Structure formats: C-alpha cells, structure tokens
Amino acid sequence: WLVSATGTNSRLIFYFDCNPPVQPCRGLPPYQYIDSEGYTIIRFDVGACVWNAPDGLDEFEILIVSGGGGGGFGNAAGGGGSGAVVYQHYIGITMNGLPGLQGAVFPLSAGAGGAGSPSESILARSGEGSTFQGPAFEYAGISTFTNRSASGGGRGGSTSNISTNRAGDAVGASGGGGAAYLTNAAAGGARNATGNPGGRAYADAFGAAGAGGGGVALAGEPGASAAGGAEMFGGNGGSGMTYDISGEDIYYSPYTANSNSFFAGGNATNNGVGLSGTTYGSGGGAGRLGGGSGFPGVIYVRYPNFRILPVEYLYLNVVYNSPLRSGDLSWSTAKEWENDRFEIERSVNNVKTWEKIEEIEGAEETFSIDLSR
Predict the structure, then answer these.
(1) Residue 30 class from Cβ within 10 Å (0-12 exposed, 13-18 middle, 19+ buried)?
(2) CA nearest to 168, candidates 244, 68, 95, 100
(3) Which of the pair, 323 or 198, is modelled with greater confidence?
(4) The whole model's pTM is what?
(5) Can you spell out the DSSP letters for 44-93?
(6) SS3 for 164?
C-alpha cells in the first residue's frame, strides 16, 4: 500500500505493484526490509546478483563496499589494506523520455575478502572488487548513469627474503602494509583514487616491525621501535569511515575499535595469527603464525516507496450527491505511465469491508463515477 486515508464515511487508497526486486543470487540471499520512513533497503552480500528496479522509480541510493585484503605472515609482516567505499544518490531520474526508470535491470556483485597468508611461501590475497552495473538513464537533469565499482583492498607483505613478497600490494583501493626481513624494510602498497597507502615497515640491526594496511580515511601507520630498539611496534591500519543508512550510522571498513578509534587497514604483526577483519571491507591483520583474512564487501540499495506512483494527479474529488444519496467521484491526471487501470471500490454501512464496483482503463482524461450503483 502506498497511501491509505480513512475518514468517517469514506476511504481512499493508492497502491502499486512492484517488479520482483531481486533475482536468485550466487552467494548469500539478499536481505530486504522497509524502514520507518517508508524506504526499501536491500543488502547484497558476497556474490553476483541482479536488482530489478521498480518501473517509475525516480530516486535511489547505492553504497558499494569492496573486500579487504588479507594480512601477511611473519614476525615483521604487514596488514591488509581496506576495500573502497563508493556512494551515489540518484535523483530526478528519467529514462527513454519518461519520468523514472523503465524496465531497468542492474547486475551487481559484492566482492569477497582476501585470504591471509598461511606461510612464508604462500602470499596473502587482495580483496575482490564490488560492481554495480545497469542501463543508461538521466538523473539530476543533466547527468547520465555509468557503471560504478569499488576496488578491493591490497594484501599485506610477508616476512621474506624475496623483496616482492615483502612489499604491500598496490593493486587494491588501499595498499597493504609493507613487511621487513632482517635489515630490509619494504614500502606499503600505493593507493588509488579511492583509498590510502599502506605504511612502510621498519628494519634495523636490532629488530624489525611490519606496517599497517591503508584505510578508507587514512594511511596505514609505519612500523617503529622504542628508543634503542628495546621493543618493536607494528603499525596500526588506517582508520575507516561511516555512512548513514536509514538513520543508522554504520561503520564501513573499520578493522577494530578502541575507544573512538576505528581501523580499516589490518594491523601489523602480533604474536599469533593476525586478527581477521570484522566489518565490511576491513583488511586482515598480520601475524607471526599467519595472516588474518580481509572482510567481504557489501552493496546497499535504498529507494523511497512513496514516489513510485505511475500517475500524476491534477485533482481527485468526492462529492456527496444528496438527491441521489450517492457519492460522485471525479479525477484528472496530468501524466500516466505503466498504468493499467483504476479500480473503484465501495463499502456499505462501514469502512472495513470493501468491494470493487467499477474498473476504468488508464487514460489521460477526467472520469466521473457514481459510487451508488
């Protein structure tokens, strides 16, 4: 139901039928609900899927998060970088010369997180990217839709005598943290336009420390040591960020929480196995005995139900006809699209039980229907 208004002696209801919002997915089934503002929210977890947009939809939002990179292996390994976060709000949509979307189908895929490194000889994996594709439509009056994507987070480097294995991966949105071996320290992976670089490892004759992976908001911290090399410190991952979805602040790409600090990139080496990412797009931590896995990405779609009427009304009037003891209903429309018919219902002696008494084909003209028949 779109609108339901009930008075003492009458009731007016507008409603519409939507296309099925999603098709079966390869991966977890989508989670769908309607929030308190009347917006439909659909969350797509890892795997490929399709969103069938309701016809006439003239506004929607998307939030795309990619998978985080896995953490490296070793006593001076680097953490994985965070996945990218891409947000877009489309308003004023027109398609094929008509208001709103028309038969629009959007293939999409939320990327998986990268696996952590289990040994020196097996590198961690970078996170997978997430994509949102679809047909061309105009929005905000002048812009044309283009496919959107978010790159996955880079893997962290592992403690190794091979220099390329020590370096944090630069392929992802945020680069993985660099690792060190003996006195050889590697740089973190570089960032692209939607992320931050991983930190540089620290290495000296008295010890080494890995670096944190890059986060959505900030770069990964470098490895460090206390004065005189008394203690090595692995760098923290870069911090994450939040987006408001239906009035709820949701953290994207934070790795862990400490008071008000949120880490998106994986932290550098601990004494055991690195901690895996815990929220969408966060990188895996590095570990002396193995790297943690990056957390998968996600895609959110949000759209208002109350704007999907296929009819624009100029007026709608109901007047009581005293001589005939009837109600005269008339209306006029400015536009109709994808509108099959109008159904007229009446209720006798109450407003709880209604029956259809007339059906009018959709057309751009005024109708007057006697509800007493």
Answers:
(1) buried
(2) 68
(3) 198
(4) 0.76
(5) E-BEEEEEEPPTT--EEEEEEEPPPPPPPBSTT--PPPPPPEEEEEEES-
(6) helix
